[in-house]
Structures are given as structure tokens and as C-alpha cells.
Design a protein that fits this description.
alpha+beta; 15 helices; 15% strand; 14 strands
Length: 454
Amino acid sequence: MAWKKLPWTFKWFSEIAKFPSEVLALKYPDVPNVGDMNSIPEQLCRELIDAPDLICGGTPCQAFSLAGWKNGLLDERGNLTLKFVEIAEANDFCRSRKGLARGLVLWENVEGVLADKTNAFGCLVSSLAGLPEALEREKWPAAGIVRGVKRNVAWRVLDAKYFGLPQQRRRLYLLASDPGFFPENVLFEKQSNVFRGYPETALVFEKDGHTFEVFREYTDCLYSSYGTKWNGNAAAYNGSLFVLQDERIRRLSPLECERLMGFPDNYTAIASAKNTNRYQALGNSWAVPVISWIGQRIHAYRRDVYDIRPQDNLFQGQGQSPENAVFIDLGKDTFRVSDDLTINCGVMPAEVKIGSMKQILAVNQDEAIYLSPVASLGMIRRKLERNLNMNSRLEEVLLQRSAQMPKHEIDKQSKRQKRGRMSNNKKIENEVLALLHEQNRADKRVRNKQPLLF
């Protein structure tokens, strides 16, 4: 979807989940699904599939350790990251038999991998670079370069909220290829503009004859379990993934989540789709404008123009050179290469684009995603149990919704499902009752058009 405007041919993809496979089969019927990624190296070597110029993907990294890199696999998740490297190696082996240069590798993951205690990222980078030992750091920088004997590798954390999507979605993007390719010329840019800060916009607005209210100018990261665990994430307490439509609180709809990720309307609305399927597929996907930006810069790449030289004095104390390789820590914002050149290696591109929640939201008629009094009070109770901070406007809205049903009826309905470990905590229940009592008093004053006294 992100690269449809580029003159590229897509050879195959690897997907095993049922619903995403159905979406891909419908949208791209001429692109074969090779299935389990574990089978890709063999398929490449047997020439059952083409060895492409570029392979991109993302793998879970939480369990990938130095021990796994050297001595074996700790678990299936680590295996997938090792397998990704094996795929890149098999692809290049097949290309070399045909006299072709190494292919490019594009890898995406959450930025938390940079601080993973098993040094997953160090193992991945070192494997791609062809180093005999893994580079180790307690925490890897948000932007950096490793020049290796086999590949040059560069990476950068980018945030989708600066690419035209009102979603704070920070992801790590890594690009690698042979030593004659300089990936920093793709991922980093010459510093030019100074961004003045994310703009404040109206949180209450009219659209299509309806009144909408949001709790922030952009959302937290859309996650894959948003369809089922919408009330158990940090975004549930800052309100960023909720909206008021005509003074009724609800979650974002699948259509709005498509827009939040940069997809066309109803992209995932295929015949077999359930809301949960769509939320999960979208939350697991990549932000389209960010990937489009990377693809355009790959396509435009011709040669090294930054000429970053690790032996220059500016790298003293910042680089380390194990086994003929060079590691360059670029930090997280800008990096001064010379008197004439500073490169942007922060989370926002040189040309920032700002989207708005007003563009994302649509009139929704699906009652299933509106919050009931039971659900609303459940969030208030959980906030008290866990001593969490909550957006004050969100708390007000949840209490108003909770007060629309008698407390004993809420308790009756909520006990139909498993309650939390503090469900019988008298102190919490007394606090809940006090909040509801105050809300009822406030609602009564409003109904009687009396001034609210503080």
C-alpha cells in the first residue's frame, strides 16, 4: 500500500495469520503468499521464489539473546529474528549466484528493542554486519550506524505523528546492504527546518452535523488488542483512543483506525471481517506514510553524499571499532558532521506534516463500541485500585455515564464476568460511591439550572 506509486514489482509476502492473509489475497491476488517465514531460505535456495532487491519485515525480538545468537535458540520469538537474518543471507547467496549485488534489508520494530536486556538489537545488527562477535551496549541509541565487513547498517526511530497521522507511533527502522551502500543517506536528512512544536487545536468541533470531542490532539499508539483490551492500556486513562460523539463516549471505529494508520477507508472491511479482526490487523501494521517516505528515499538513493568519516576527530569517544567494523552513535536529534553539514536523525522528518483528529473521525452508528455505564464505572474503579492518573475530562465523562444506571444494577451486571482482585475492597467501593454521589448532585444541579459551587 505504501509503495504502490513506486515503479517496483512485488514478488511475494509471508503471512500465516488468517485474517491478514485474506485481506492480502483480496487486495493483491497476483502476489503469492509463501506462508511460514521459516521456509523462506529453502524456497530461495531451491529457486521456488525470486531473490528480490529488497526484503522488508518485522520480527518479535523480546526473547532474542546473545546466548541464542552464539549457541542456539532460547525460544520461538528469538528464532524468528535469527530466521530474518538467515533469510537475508539466503537471499544474497542466491543473488550472488546470478552475479547480482547484495539486496537491501529493511527491518521494523518497537523502539523498546534498543533497551532489551538480552541485547537482541546488538545481535541483529552484528549478524547483519557480518561481525564475529556481537556489539554490546546497555542501551542502543535511537539513531546510529554500523559499518561492517558484510553490510553497512543504519537505523532511526521515527514517529508517525510527524508524517500526517495524529497518532504517536514511534518505531525503529533499520536499513542495511553491502559496504558500497550507505543507508544513512536514506534514513537521515540534512538538517534544515526547526520544528516549533506540535500545534494545539480545538478538542471540540462539529463535523457532518455532529459534535465531537477528543481528549488530545493525537492518540497513543494503536495496539493490536485494542478491540478486546481497550480499557487496560495507558491510552485508556489519557483518553487518547476514545472520542465523544454527541456527548456519548466510545472507542474509535475500525474505519477511524484505518485512517489513523494511513489506509484508505474500509481497506480491511472484507466479507469475513469482524471488528476484532480489523483492530488486530491494523494495530499490527505499519504506518503507511512513514513507510512511503522511506520507500521514496530508497528509490531516490544514488550515492553517498554525507561522507561521514569515522576516523575524524568528531567521533572521538563516540565510536568503537571491533574486528574492522565501526559503530557510530548519532544520538537522538541532530548530529554535526562538519562545519557545513548537520544531519537530522530525530523522530521527525525535515518536512513535518501534521494530521488532525477531525480528519480521522467519522459519524459512527455501531452501538457495540459505545461505553456502557458498567464499562465506564469499571474504568473508574480500576483507576482507583491501581492509583493511576486519569485525564480529568475523561474521568468526568465516565462518571456522568456511570451515573446513568443505579449502582446496584451496575454491580449486578459487572459480576457476570470475572472481577479484579480488589473487587471487594471496601475502601475502593466507598470511594466509588462518593464519586457517584457527587456526580449525581452535579447532574441534579445542572438539571435544575443551578450554579455549580466549588
